[in-house]
Write a structure and sequence with these properties.
This protein is mostly helical and 416 residues long. 76% of the residues lie in helices and 0% in strands.
Length: 416
């Protein structure tokens, strides 16, 4: 969700002649790679290969952001090289894929009895990054110009990646699941997951989430500027210094993204708490999808002043955080008890189904934005989230049906 900060920077300064649709691709490509490669990283994590993945991710993300600092010349107006930027984000996506499943996997292993809250807190870390990273980008680029500012930012990313590589390890009390032959399909795909109707409908629902949810945060700064709710800030002085009067007075549009991401941290933890109280994370997530969809369809188009827009950003962040923060909890809940050593594998399979929707969703949002305006992006997001809620509702029914079947089979065996 932090790509919105780069999106504003590219659109306003470095790539002003590049279309909104084209600028969406560097943001959606890493999400596509992260989800696609989850099919591989999931079973590797089940085999307790955390350290190998973490150090690989640390190296790739560090290299990606360091390379990004060389893609825009001196950082002056219009000096961005689109294809070089795209390649850097591709490399960043490969590195981020090594960390993506590991965070929730570690929480599940270390806190099996409080896994909802543990996963929610872990997931909230992404939202905290969504606050700090856009602020860091804006400040560093404004203070030091793009090349030097992004190199400092790369050092920040490297530091956090190194901490994750050093301390993110598997719980030794949980037996590893041996990794099968690499050419065998069952090493990566669990037949039990393919036979589960609840898992299949849930995968369809999460695919709808990844298709529609992120389109809106990508364009929240543009939305604020075009509706007069916030103003753009010329964050790059030609001499690399932050100008004394950088843009017109008013509420800076990039703050809407910061507020949205910050509220998401609250929503991810709160959503996990609600799921723990309800006792069914899938049903809880479906409810959050409906609430978030209503915000996108109704409140996004109707926001007419800065106060309303801030309220929208807070509410979308809170309810959207509930949507995103419960994915790993639902997967862990859907995996049968006798296959709990396959949580990483099931998670990888789920995210594989979401890879293409995550790639094309922001592109569709960009096309709708360019042709019909910002309201169409909200309607697209809302429609996708309502479709997700419908799939999850069906998943709740199928899950309970499967549970009743298992209980019935146990009773029959007990009688025999």
């Amino acid at each position: 969700m932090s790509y919105g900060a780069f999106m504003g920077l590219f659109d306003e300064h470095l790539l002003p002649s590049t279309s909104t649709l084209t600028l969406s691709l560097p943001g959606s490509l890493p999400a596509f790679l992260i989800l696609l490669l989850s099919l591989i990283t999931g079973p590797l994590l089940d085999a307790h290969l955390h350290r190998y993945l973490a150090f690989t991710g640390f190296a790739l993300t560090s290299l990606a952001y360091l390379a990004l600092s060389f893609t825009c010349g001196a950082g002056l107006y219009g000096q961005g090289s689109y294809w070089a930027i795209l390649l850097c984000f591709l490399l960043a996506g490969l590195g981020q894929a090594c960390f993506f499943v590991a965070s929730s996997q570690n929480a599940t292993q270390w806190f099996p009895h409080q896994r909802y809250i543990a996963i929610g807190i872990t997931s909230a870390g992404a939202a905290v990054g969504g606050i700090l990273y856009p602020l860091a980008i804006r400040f560093l680029v404004g203070k030091h110009a793009f090349p030097t500012g992004i190199r400092i930012f790369a050092a920040l990313v490297s530091s956090t990646g190194l901490l994750a590589a050093l301390f993110g390890q598997a719980n030794p009390a949980v037996p590893p699941r041996p990794l099968g032959p690499l050419a065998r399909t069952t090493t990566w795909l669990d037949p039990a997951a393919l036979r589960s109707g609840a898992f299949a409908t849930y995968a369809a629902g999460v695919a709808c989430i990844f298709a529609g949810f992120f389109a809106l945060p990508f364009f929240v700064t543009n939305w604020a500027q075009h509706k007069g709710l916030g103003v753009a800030q010329d964050i790059v002085g030609g001499d690399g210094e932050l100008p004394a009067a950088s843009g017109p007075p008013g509420f800076r549009s990039y703050w809407f993204l910061i507020i949205l991401n910050g509220s998401s941290a609250v929503g991810r933890v709160a959503g996990s708490w609600v799921a723990m109280r309800v006792g069914d994370p899938l049903l809880t997530q479906a409810g959050f999808c409906v609430l978030t969809a209503l915000l996108a369809v109704v409140m996004w188009p109707l926001a007419g002043n800065t106060t309303t827009a801030v309220a929208f950003s807070v509410l979308y962040g809170v309810f959207g955080g509930g949507v995103l923060g419960l994915v790993a909890s639902v997967v862990a809940d859907l995996v049968p008890g006798e296959r709990k050593d396959c949580v990483g594998q099931w998670t990888g399979m789920l995210f594989l189904a979401c890879a293409v929707p995550a790639l094309v969703g922001p592109l569709i949002g960009g096309a709708l934005y360019a042709r019909y305006g910002e309201n169409a992006v909200g309607w697209f997001t809302g429609g996708a989230l309502l479709a997700a809620a419908a799939c999850m509702g069906l998943g709740v029914w199928l899950k309970r049906k499967e549970e009743r079947k298992v209980v019935g089979e146990k009773e029959v065996r007990a009688e025999v």
